Amino acid sequence: MSLNSVVERVTARVTERSKGSRRRYLELMERNRQKGVNRTRLSCSNMAHAVAAEPDAIKEELIHPKPRHPNIGIITTYNDMLSAHQPYEHYPEQIKLFAREVGATAQVAAGAPAMCDGVTQGQEGMDLSLFSRDVIGQSTAVGLSHGMYEAAALLGICDKIVPGLLMGALRFGYLPTMLIPGGPMTSGLPNEEKVKIRKLFIEGKVSENELMHAEMASYHAPGTCTFYGTANTNQMVVEFMGLMMPDSAFAITNTPLRQGLTRAAIHRLAEMGLHSANPRPLTEVVTEKSVVNAIVGLMATGGSTNLTIHLPAIARAAGIIIDWEDYNLLSDVVPDLAKIYPSSAADINAFNEAGGVPSVISELISADLLHTDVKTVYGDNLKDYAQRAILKGKDIVYAPAEPSKNHEVLRPLSNPFSKTGGLKMLEGNLGRGVTKVSAVEPQNLVVEAPAKVFHTQDAVKAAQKNGELDQDTVVVVLHQGPRANGMPELHMLIPVLGVQMDKGYHMALVTDGRLSGASGSVPSAVHVWPEAQVGGPLAKVRDGDMIRVDGRTGKLEVLVDKKEFDAREAVPPVKPDIGTGRELFAMMRHFAPCPEEGGSAMLRLMDEDLEKVGDNFSGEFTV
Hints:
Helix content is 38%, strand content 13%. It has helices spanning 5-17, 19-35, 44-51, 56-62, 91-101, 117-120, 129-144, 161-169, 191-202, 208-218, 230-240, 256-271, 282-285, 288-301, 307-317, 324-331, 348-354, 356-366, 457-465, 482-485, 493-502, 562-567, 586-591, 601-613; strands at residues 71-76, 105-111, 151-155, 177-179, 387-392, 395-400, 423-428, 431-436, 446-454, 473-477, 507-511, 524-529, 546-550, 555-558. Helix 7 (129-144) packs parallel to helix 8, helix 11 crosses helix 14 (288-301) and helix 19 (457-465) runs parallel beside helix 21 (493-502).
């Protein structure tokens, strides 16, 4: 059988679109490999600083004029406030031991921040969330810039953390690199019960104390939160791209299997180090084909809408340009095989028990929906990832993936939940956005209702409390884009609008902001651009305008006479918010591109510099 024609066509259009930028990227990485900083080019003084704190035996290994074994640079995003990253506390110690088992060494190259969107939801700190991704990318680059390493191990798992790590590591794409997951927590309070209590609290039917106990029972242990939000979608995407060991995304944290997978990852990373017999640089793993595979995985599992921002940013860091039309074309042919909360009550552990990522990859390969001829950190074919990891003693062995054991959570291609993917692009006279259709009931996919315009989440909550939303409504929340306030997540609105839907009203959300990966039951158009802050069409919407949000046809329209709508004045841009450190991110707000381009000011300005330099970087960069 041959590759699906649409997958082939999307890959061809991505490759053609990226021809110049990808060539420049690969040539720059080759220049860096040949002429950039590395351990063999460090002076005696440089090296003495780099090894001063190491034991004598490690010093002797590291200062050898010809590296006999790779030194692995660890980029850690450990902190003990974030449940998903708390397990990383002792990973550097373990990694050093695992590296020594095969003659390699390891050093912590840098730490990067890892903020929790769950803690900052609805708070001022959420305005820093998206831009923290650039900070993580820069921190990763700072750590690797010391030139002491022949490979890199990235310790990160959550929302902006994984994309940021990859964005930074890709500037050192000549290094073999692997993501080392931490794993999800065990299952807590069932999701249906959690949602029920949240709605009852909004209606004033349960106390704050009862709500607190429900939330504590949901988020109750070390590890990633178990809903299929952005954190777990990141893990799926990275596994589909072949950037971690097969079947390592969802092994529960702090278990023997999880430690076995970490050990196997470090052994493999040492084996494919820069000066090894068979090095596997990051440039050979992150390619046009692997990026398309990631989008296919996103569609097949109904993952987070945040990946429509993060994947373009990751790809752009590798010189690969993707757009939402690529997503849309793939969505038309990739079936939705998984139902994980918020698309159902089942959590990520139920999905993994049903067959997890290996079963999904196996099904998609059988339908020729994935490029199998890709290099991965494990081998030379994606078929290696259609396997389940088994711990035997201390070692990981693999067995072929089996068909799903639970068709309520994971289905075969012969009986998908939907014949099309979980995400869809929306487009019309209000701009361009995305929606998650896999979590929305079919009868709610199309909403046509009067608009009610707001400028903050709090204003929406107050309106609901006052009964102002007791009618069919399209809630429009303006000035939530990257240029306005950093594009915070608006997840707190979902229970509020869900209560209104339970009352029988048709509700939808339209915004230039983001939603949490856990959001989905409310039909929504998110990431809408051009954003209101720069005078986009959303800034001309007025209370009472009829708006149509159509998740079936992909239309996002204000049903107002064109001449009248065009003649309206846009509401003025908002003044920047300050406090809680937000003023430190003014540069990122000012230069941020649209979300379809990845929303990263860092990458936008990087691209401008690279275009100025052009192809003339055989030596040092000069004016």
